[in-house]
Each structure stands twice: as structure tokens, then as C-alpha cells.
Amino acid sequence: MENKWAIILGCSTGHGAATAKQLASEGYGIIGFHLDRGSIKKDALKLQDEISNMNNNRVKFWNVNAADKEIMLEKLIDIKKIVKNGEVKLLMHSIAFGSTTNFFNPTPVRQRQMDMTQHVMAHCLIYWTQNLLNEGLLKAGSRILGLTSEGSYKAMEGYGPVGVAKASLEAVVRQIGWELGSQGITANTIQAGITPTRALTKISENWEEWVEKTKERNPMKRVTRPEDVAGLVSLLLNDKANFVNCSTIFCDGGEHRAL
């Protein structure tokens, strides 16, 4: 494996964690950002150790707010030192942090909540891409990936701010791919199906019911697993995927086609 690295924004659990392990097993260096406390922080440390054993200690996690501009610029200096003369093959946005409420009743969303959700779950990817590009860390063959959901085009209880942010993320990724495609840098979103992750439990108290209903309507009669998404990411990093750009790729077993 050449000196290639993956930067994963939101690496401690779910799709981000599974992708980190998958790529580490293939020899990629892993740079991860997460913002966790308590037991989840301990899980992140265990994951970092596991990855270290897989890829010869080519891993660095930071427990900080990756969407913060000052932190972004500060860690960019460290990333350059870590990557050295290599390249960032993947920048993946997997941050699941936003306001889960409605626009109106029972608890109307506030502007501060909307602005935060939009920035963290969509807009910060623009600034990460800008900075990595300016530092020469993104090159032909680099991939920008974001994770979206059905909520980007379906109205759902308690999902208003996040749904808007997911729609924004798709637009952000399309524009990145459109502007950087001529440089051989591609950008796509992956739409996973309902996945029983920590993020899902924050969206609704009825998440277990969602999981059971998903098993019924999914053509493959199961929910999406983080490893499914990690496998797709691995495929997209192959040079044979160089012409896949500005697209939303479904990784849900056909769930989005079912009623």
C-alpha cells in the first residue's frame, strides 16, 4: 500500500468506525475525528488501538469538534506532518450530530439549532475540502464522501433540522464533485438504509420499531449494517470507480424502493 490516508469525520461508532476498520485492514492510514464523552470515549480509544494493530500504528484520533474552524486549521498542521509526502485518498463526512426536533410542535426548532445542524452536518465539509485542497493533500483519485438518508427527501417526525442538513449535504457534495471533477477528485453521497447505530437511538424513542418495520419492507429482509457501507467505501476507492461523481449511491438492499 502506498502512503495513502483516510480522514473520517465522525469515526468512533457506526459507519465511520466500520469504514476506519475496513480501510485499515487494507493498509490505509486512518485519521479520525470524534466528539465523545464517557463510555463512548473509551470505545473510541479501543477502536484506535485495534486499528493500530491492523495498519502498523498508522492511526491518529482526535476527540474534538471537527466542525470548529479554529480546530480545523490547527489539526490541518498536524495532518500535514502525519501524511508527509503521501496523499489523502478519502475525506469522509460521517458526523451524526444535530437537533432532533420538529419545526413547530411540540418543541419548535430555534435558529441557533438550525444553524448548528446545517454547519456540522453539511457546510463544514466545504471548508475541510478547501483546506485540504489548498495544502495539496487532495489529488487526482481522491474521494469526498458524505452519508445521507431517506430524510433528505422524506418528512419524518423529529427529523426536520437533520433532514434539511442531509439535503444540504447532498447539494454540497454535488457541487464539490462538479467543481473538482476536472482535477480527478470525485465527490459522492452514500445513502444507507435504517441502521441500528447510536445515532439512530438519538433520533427517535421508537427506533426499535423502525428497525422491525425496516426488516419487513426491505427486499433483503434485514437492516443495513455499518459493514455494508464500509464495503461500498472500499469499492469506491478503487481506480475503477474514477468516473463515479456527483451521485447518490444507495447502500440499503433496495429499501428506498419499498413502501
Please give a structural write-up.
With 259 residues, the chain is an alpha/beta fold. The protein has one domain (4-250): NAD(P)-binding Rossmann-like Domain (Rossmann fold), CATH 3.40.50.720. Helices cover 45% and strands 16% of the residues. Strand 2, helix 2 and strand 3 (59-63) form a beta-alpha-beta unit.
Blueprint of the fold:
Layout: E1 4-9, H1 14-25, E2 29-34, H2 38-54, E3 59-63, H3 69-83, E4 87-93, H4 111-134, E5 143-148, H5 160-180, E6 186-192, H6 198-203, H7 207-217, H8 226-236, E7 247-251
Parallel strand pairs: 1-2, 1-4, 2-3, 4-5, 5-6, 6-7
Helix pairs in contact: 1-2, 1-8, 3-4, 4-5
Keywords:
single chain, 259 residues, alpha/beta, Rossmann fold, seven-stranded parallel beta sheet, 8 helices, 7 strands, globular
Structure summarized in a few sentences:
With 259 residues, the chain is of the alpha/beta class.
Distance between the termini: 43 Å
CATH architecture: 3-Layer(aba) Sandwich
Shape: globular
Number of domains: 1
Our count of helices gives: 8
- Beta percentage is 15-25%
Mean pLDDT: 93
| Weakly predicted, low-confidence segments | none
CATH level 1 class label: Alpha Beta
Q: Report the CATH superfamily.
A: NAD(P)-binding Rossmann-like Domain
Give the fraction of residues assigned to helices.
40-55%
Assembly state (oligomeric) = single chain
Structural class designation: alpha/beta
Largest sheet: 7 strands, parallel
**Compute the gyration radius: what is it?**
18 Å
Order of secondary-structure elements: EHEHEHEHEHEHHHE
- Strands in their spatial order, largest beta sheet: 3-2-1-4-5-6-7
Number of strands: 7
- CATH fold description: Rossmann fold
